[in-house]
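Review this fold:
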Amino acid sequence: MDYEYLANLLFPEVTDTPEDLEKRFPPREGLPEGAVVTRMAPSPTGFVHLGNLVQGLTSERLAHQSGGVLFLRVEDTDSKREVKGAVEVLIETLKHYGIHFDEGAVMGGDSGAYGPYRQSRRAPIYHVYAKKLVREGLAYPCFCTEEELKEIHEEQEKENANFGYFGKWAKWRDRPVEDIEQMIAAGHKWVLRFRSTGSIENKIKFTDLIKGEIEITENDIDHVLLKSDGIPTYHFAHAVDDHLMRTTHVVRGDEWLSTLPFHLQLFRALGFRPPKYCHIGPLMKMDGNSKRKLSKRKDPELALTYYRAEGFPIEAVYEYILTVLNSNFEDWRRANPDAPTDDFRFSYKKMNPAGSLFDGAKLRDVSKNVIGKMSAERVYELAAGWAAEFDPEFHAALTRDRDRTVAVFAIGRGGKKPRKDFAVFSELKDYMGFFYDEFFAIKETFDPKFAPADVAAIVSEYAEMYDPADDQTAWFDKIKNLGAAHGFAADMKEYRADPDAYKGSVADVSNFIRLALTGKNSSPDMYAVMNILGKQTCVARLLAFAESLK
């Protein structure tokens, strides 16, 4: 076979050489020794999921902690799966979650010297290397139709053989150039296949940075490199791109491990040094007593849109993912409670090779802690931003009087043990809606052991004596004295010593007032709540509650 002739027959328009591309995309300069150059390379399917964020955060930490480069490459070679506008959604979502790229695809174009960063725009580059492989006898055209490939599959099934295009089933692997010329002249479409030299009888050892040393079977399949439209498959494109973009580390899900033998073959055939691989185990969740992978169909928390709609702060999601990825993060956080997460020394060596368990309850706890440490002003900004997008009516109330809303968020904030009342901003309306007349409603009730007449009397009398000028001691003394006058213990120790001697305690009296003012049996500090509500609103609600009990 005259491979030079075949290469020119298949790619007559290709005049660039691999050497030309090496000059166009030279090795990166100015990076410190050991710098990691890595990428995120998602497909624009319209679904940005938690796995993207896990991979992105891992890649970002490895790159930026080493003084390296993180770039975004969009792998859009599968037009059938691409969703219109998905690239923009992808870029915006990753930006929202704090994954900052040094170069790569941006809205409407590229930023960086190693582009294009969308694979659909790199076809001429792939064709240069496709021609190289044909010229060296490492790739060949295949004219098999879908029907013929189906027949091959059926034959393999009958013979209980492995599936794939290889061996005696690789019908175009060694066909003479005359046959190829005839098919091209007749207008038949072809795909370019890799000429594999592997055997399933052979094993190769490979060291993955997360999973350690693994043994895998060699690839013997003549996989497709270029589809009939000239667009590469993922396998071929990623090998060419990772070399020319000077990628040192590839972070990806371990579902790609099965393709690793083929990828290593490709790098070797192309004359490239393969990058180091970090294969991340799947995100799992408990389903009864067993674990299973997070599912797009079953688990809304897999989609990143879920966290945005629920109102998890970015910092909370980011911090939780670090607890999932690195086993020592929580110890570090306990030792450094106020340090920024960027100070944490992330390590792939601390990642679980088998994958990590997603725990929604733990995420909520992390989020409560993160929000609890924020300033009232910061909580206001995030809450208003969330409400503007997901609850415009609530947003109008929150922003009507900024200072008043900030004062609400300031209740119990600061100090060694700040309040942790909510985990997500979608819970805010229930938590603080009573501060706004349009959302106030009596949602709960008092213990039925208390007589409504007693509750009504206490609440109405308190409305007459409430004075916002009282300090907290005088305010509470009035509540204790009022309760005592109605048979409720003013001292909790006395009540606990002989509860049958009283109708209830000062805690119960306080709760009657709380229920009248907030509609709930739990709330932030009532003294602060009443000061923010103002005397007119407090008195009106107390009297209305008392009236409702008659």
The radius of gyration is 33 Å. DSSP finds 23 helices and 16 strands in the chain.
